[in-house]
Amino acid sequence: MSGIGGGHEDVDIDLGGLFRAVWQRRSRVVLATLGAAAVAFAAAKMIAPQYESETRVLIESREPEFSGAGQLPQSGSDRIFDESGIASQVQVLRSADLIKQVARNMKLHELEEFDPSAHPSALSDLLVMLRMKKNPLELPPEERILREFNSKLQVYQVEKSRVIAIAFTSKDPKLAAAIPNEMAKVYLSLQSGAKLDSNSEASRWLEPEIANLREKVREAEAKVAAYRAESGLLPTSETENFATRQLSDISAELARVRGERANAAARAEGVRAALADGRAVDTLADIVGSPMIQRLKESKAALEAQIADVSTSLLDGHPRLKGLRSQLEGIEAQIRSETRKILASLDNEAKVGQLREQQLVQQLNSLKAQSAQAGEEEVGLRALEREAAAQRQLLETYLVRYREATSRSVANATPADARVISNAVIPALASFPKVIPITIVAAFASFLVSCVVIMLAELFSGRALRPTSVATPTVAEPAPVSAAPESASNVPYEASVAAVEPQSGKESEVREPNAAEQDFSIESVADHLLGHGVRVAVSVSPGGDEGSMAAVMLVRLLAEAEQKVVLIDFSGSVCPTRLMAQSPHLPGITDLLAGEVAFSETIHADRFSDAHVIPRGEADPRMAMRGIERLQMIVDALTNAYDLVLIECGQADAEAVAKVARREGTEIILSAPSVSEEKIVEELTRFGQAGYRDIVLMTGAGRPGPDFPDRRAA
Fold it and tell me: Where is each Polysaccharide chain length determinant N-terminal domain found (predicted)?
């Protein structure tokens, strides 16, 4: 909308006129479109075609099946290439050394396509002479080829894979396919060669290290042997030395001797007890086992048999019978004597065992001392053995690595960690230019430009502009209508606002509004607040919730204009709180005035815009009004953070508004949609009598405001 000064009227854009103008000049548009399409088609046909082909390489571990003698087979999944590893391989493929190697292999310096600067045009020579262009021949041929090569090369990682694509563009389709294949070949060769170099370097490094370790192992083992000989720790097995083995043998012998001594003493005691008790000793094992006793027993048995035989024919006093009996007594005496000898033998055997035990105990004590000393000396021996074992283990590890590196130093033993999965083929179709798409795009662009040019010409000439009709407000006879009570309805309401500024005095005067203000629209009030830089405004709604809803719409309209706006709900029906806040039970201005909550806890976001709202709150209004003096400090603090602070007072009178509108420059807004003109005039007069000079009137969208007599007195 534009305004023309002095009796000017607002104008609008005639969209129908714009389209009619384009349709009237349709022949020009068609000719321009066809001409642009023809030019684009011809230009695309004149451009030398470019062909593109692509090779794809899969990055994976390709270790040989057996990496060395005695090694287990390795799988390709043992090594994982992450995103950074694949990106590094992309940079290797774009490296200057690899490209130079490809250029030398394919003799690209002989092709004019890769060194166009070698044959400059006359215009290029003129620009160089005028110092408007740097002489390209100053660069070495390799650098010129490298720069041209890079401009035609594309190397990228295929998304979410370990595949690298090598794409090349050239005027020659065969060359476009040959170069990516050659790059892949050189890349694999360089990777394999790098592995061979690594293995060769490892072999060269390991050779002196192995020789040095062998010498260290020999010295360590020699120290172990010398220490063992010096300390007398001669080994008898893997876990024992001479001292511990001898101690073990003596202990076993001592236990055996003690057992034999105890056995001999027990046998002697048994024989002695049998003799003392007068019991027959021929039942004892030692007596029965004696050969002498056995012969005496046999002689005794023979004599007893003779005595029994002779006693049948001879009397007891017969000399022969007496002689046999005397012999029998002599044999019994010999048996008793022999028994005492056996007892003495057993006692001697026990004494000998005791003496042997004493000797063994002395030897055992001596060996214990030697064994303790040997244990202390074994600490040093074990330290030397550990050192020798560590050196030996390290030597064995180096030997294994050396054999593995040597086995991989031969050709084809270490393949590159990549393989070609798709070779480039000779392309049959050119990748550029795409004649048909270029022609279509050029035709469409020409059509749009032609239409835009025609529309702009119509706008600047004024032919596409039409005046907007402004409804002339009429004087309406005010009818006495009582103010509608404040309702709690939540029915959506589409409201507009309009601005009127009555002059203060005994009779409130209203200033002459311009044409934009006579419709009392929401946009007019928003423009008024923005244009005058109003920071604090107080809204009074004599009609109840409809006026509060209009204030909410005003706040949201200002928020859409990227203004930082906050609304403080002082209404009795908490209509703004219900419309804007997430819940009607949030802490608000009454809680803040009562000192029950922190300042930051009362500010909440609007549900449908970027504006903010401070709800009415849950505290007792009477208690909150005791702290009304703090409201001015709260408003001042909010003006530091917001462009506009709007206080919605609902159906408040002038006396109540005076308590909240103490800040200088506070704008009073009378939000009165669906309110009679008589009521509006009455409210304006009441505020004028209270001393308010400027009042902004809002009457709602689609409803004209009151027509004041002579535009002077309400």
Answer: 12-105
CA separation for the pair 6, 685 (Å, rounded): 31
Instruction: Answer whether the bond into residue 433 is a cis peptide, omega within 30°.
Output: yes
pLDDT in tens, 207-223: 888 888 888 888 888 88
Q: Taking the CA atoms of the chain, what radius of gyration do you get in angstroms?
A: 61
Over the stretch 645-692, which tens digit does the pLDDT of each residue have?
999 988 888 788 887 877 777 888 888 887 777 888 888 888 887 777
State yes or no: pLDDT of 225 exceeds 60: yes
Task: Give the contacts of 597 (CB within 8 A, at least 6 positions apart).
Answer: 587, 591
Q: Which of 300, 302, 304 is nearest to 338 (CA)?
A: 300
Give me the architecture of the 522-698 domain, per CATH.
3-Layer(aba) Sandwich (3.40)
Residue 470 in this model has a pLDDT that exceeds 50: no
- Residue tagged 């799988």 (tokens): 75
Please list, in sequence order, all residues whose beta carbon lies within 8 angstroms of the beta carbon of residue 685, skipping any fewer than 6 positions away.
Answer: 507, 508, 714
Cβ-based neighbours of 89, under 8 Å, separated by 6 or more: 59, 81, 164, 418
Give the whole-angstrom CA distance, residue 31 versus residue 25: 10
Q: What is the pLDDT of residue 70?
A: 43
Judged by average pLDDT, the poorest of 62-76, 543-557, 689-703 is 62-76
Q: Is 62 helix (H, G, I), strand (E, B) or coil?
A: coil
* Cβ–Cβ under 8 Å, residues 323 and 213: no
Helical residues (DSSP H) of 575-670, grouped into ranges? 575-580, 589-593, 621-626, 631-639, 654-660
Q: CA geometry: angle at 236 spanning 233 and 239, to 5°? A: 85
Please give the Cα distance from 205 to 682 (Å, whole number).
106
Tell whether the model's pLDDT for residue 252 goes beyond 60: yes
Dist CA 184 CA 417 (whole Å):
12
Reported as a pLDDT band with limits 50, 70 and 90, residue 94 is very high
> Looking only at Cα atoms, what is the longest distance across the chain?
197
Give residue 361's identity as a one-letter amino acid code.
Answer: V
Contact partners, residue 615, CB within 8 Å, separation at least 6: 569, 574, 576, 577, 581, 584, 586, 587, 588, 589, 602, 604
Residue 235 contacts by C-beta under 8 Å, 6 or more apart in sequence?
Answer: 228, 241, 242
54 by DSSP, 3-state: which? strand
CA 42-44-48 angle, 5° bins = 115
Query: Which of 92-113 are b and which e, b meaning 16 or more Cβ less than 10 Å from the residue's Cβ?
Result: bbbeeebbbbbbeebebeebee
- Cβ distance 642 to 447 under 8 Å? no
Tell how far CA 548 is from the center of its chain.
50
**DSSP conformation letters of 477-500:** -----PPPPP--------------
Query: Domain ranges in the chain?
Result: 15-47+433-461, 242-379, 522-698
- Write down the pLDDT at residue 696: 83
